[in-house]
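Hi everyone,

Forwarding the result from last night's run.
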Amino acid sequence: MIGPKERLSRREGANLFVKGARSFSSKEGWTKRQTKPGQHGAQSSRLSSYARQLREKQKVKRQYGMRERQFRKFFEEAVRIAKNTNQDKGFIFLQMLERRLDNVVYISTLTKSKSNARQVVSHNHVKVNGKRLDTPSAFVNVGDVIEISLKIADKVKADYVGMALPSWLSIDGNKIVVTALPTRSQIDPSIKESLIVELYSR
């Protein structure tokens, strides 16, 4: 049965990778049924530029499991950083999202899903540089060492056997070392961050 979270992938027309190892298998909801949920899901219509921008924003927001207020706050901070460093604000925004502690814990394949990663962090099962940190939205930096409770990490190791790990992270057992900041090529290529920039720049 395709659960509600996988219907979100179908709604956005893309795999949002919200179900852990299942998201990378043929059982994933969008892979199995590439139509939008509902009676008329198979029908398609031409979207306006605003609708395309809105759908891209909703897709990415759901992909990272964030609420609108926090998502926009991240964007505003990315605009500020980009202005001060003369960098592309769309890329800075994506890099910030990718560097969230809950996302790093998830993509390290040491938790069952993105929601589980947030729960693991908020329930004090994660240490950063030897200190417990319970803020899922905290940023990781180069050189940070993230340690996840062995009891939790050992439960899910077998589920991800053979899966490629992010090259900007080094994983050893239940420990993650941030060896670099993610480049654009290391972040989901299906994301069209320019649409989100256009939407929030209206």
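The chain has a mean pLDDT of 84.

Cheers,
N.
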